[in-house]
Amino acid sequence: MSSVPRGFLLSVAVFTLIYAFVSFLFSLLISFGLFVIFCSLFVVFISYARIPAPSQKVVEEILGLDYYEVKSEDASNLDKECPSSSGFVMPIVAHRGACLDAPENSLTAFRLVKLRGVHGVELDVSLTKDKVPIVFHDEVVDRVTNGAGRVVDLTYEEIKELDLSTKFIFPQEFSLERIPKLSEAIDLCLDLDLRIMIDVKEPDSQLADAVLAEYKRRPELKKRAMVSSFFPNIIYLVRLGDPDIVCSMAVRPNFFAYKDFIPGFGPSHPRFDAWWKHWGACFLDQLLEISQYSFTPYFLGLSAILSSHVGVDIVKLSHWRSQGLRVFIWTLNDPVAKKYCHEVLRTPYLTDTLDL
C-alpha cells in the first residue's frame, strides 16, 4: 500500500488553514455588518421615537431665568419680581408646599408660600382606589393624617374625611386640612400665579393620563407647570401625549434598588426581597446613572434635572448644564447647605421650610 505524498498533506493543511481564515473573516464581516445594521436601525428608531424638548422661552416662563447665569448681585432683586414679569428668577421651591411650615401638600400650605413671596411649589400626585388623582406623597396615610392604610386601598370619599393638621408639628396653628384633589390644587396655584412642579410618584400610566387630563382642562399649565418623575416611562408618556409639556427627571443614587439613601452611610432598605429583582433594580440604577448625562435627556426631551443633594457635585452639575438642562437640588433644610447651594454651586433648591 503506497503512502500519501507529504506534499499532498501539506497542501491539504494549507488549504484548510486558508479556508478557516477566510471563513473567519467572512463571519466577522457578516457579524460586523449585522452590528452596523443593528446600530443603524437603533439610531433611526431613537431619532424617530425621541421627543424634542420645549423651547427655552417656555422653560423661562415656568422656571424664570437660569439662576446659574444670573449675577449674584442681581439675583436677590430679580427674586422679588412678580413671576408674571419677564425677568424673575426662582431660587427656592417650596417642597410639598414647605411641609415644615404648614401641613404638607395642603391648600393652606400653598397659600402661605405665596404670602412668603416664593414663586414655586412642588406637589405630589397619587391615585385613590377609585382612580381620583389627589395631592399626596406617601404610599400610606398614617404619617401625616389621622387615618391609616394605603392610598390605593382607600376611595376618595374615605380620603377626603382625613385631616392633615392632626399630625402636623404645630397642630394648634391649623384647623381641619383636607387632602386636596389634584384639580383643586392646580386651580389654586394658578389663581395665586405660582409655578408648579408636579411630581408623579409611581410608574403607573394612569397617573400620566391624569396629569395629561389636567393640562387639557387647564391649557395655561404649559406655561406655569413642569412635570417631574423618577420614572422615565412616565415622562415619556406625558410628553408623548403632549410634546409641549415641560418635564424634568428626579434623580437619587440607588433609587430603584433602595427606598432610602442615608448621607454618610449609603443606600438602605432594599425595595425587593427576591435577589433577582434586587439585582435587576441595581442594574437599572447603574444604567440610568450613566445615561442621565446624555441619552436620557436627549430621548425624553428633558428641560431640567431635580437632583438629590446626596452625591451631587460640581462635575455632575457641569455635565447636566452642558446638555442645556436646568438643575434643582432637593431637599435642603439646613441654612449652611442652602447658602452653599446658592453661593457656591449657584443652583436653586427645594426646601421644606422657608423660615431658615
UniProtKB/TrEMBL annotation:
Residue ranges of domain GP-PDE in the record:
90-356
Answer yes or no on keyword Membrane: yes
Q: Which UniProt keywords apply?
A: Membrane, Transmembrane, Transmembrane helix
Q: Which GO terms describe its cellular component?
A: plasma membrane
**GO biological process entries:** ethanolamine metabolic process; N-acylethanolamine metabolic process; phospholipid metabolic process
UniProt entry tagged with the keyword Transmembrane? yes
Q: Which GO terms label this protein's molecular function in UniProt?
A: glycerophosphodiester phosphodiesterase activity
Which domain of life does the protein's organism represent?
Eukaryota
- Which residues are listed as membrane-spanning? 7-26, 32-51
Cross-referenced Pfam families? GDPD (PF03009)
- Protein's name in the database: GP-PDE domain-containing protein
- Species assigned in the record: Notodromas monacha
Ranked from the top, the taxonomy reads: Eukaryota, Metazoa, Ecdysozoa, Arthropoda, Crustacea
